[in-house]
Input
Amino acid sequence: MIRFIDDHRDRFGVELICRVLRPAVQGFLTSSGYRAAVGRAPCARQLKDELLVPEVARLHAESYGVYGRREMHADAAARAGHRP
Output
């Protein structure tokens, strides 16, 4: 949601985006919720996910882009030494 607002805020404004999409999208932010989220430091999960994105992209490329999420999960777990 934050990324969507950031991508379109220059054209439509934060308040308008939030006012239009809030009734249509369950859990969509209010404009004050957006501002609070933008000012907040990233959580541990977000930081961990950002580190994993390049690894997942590399594994996906190694599979010639054909592995789905189940195969990707199994491959990553096997490389980490986990048993399925």
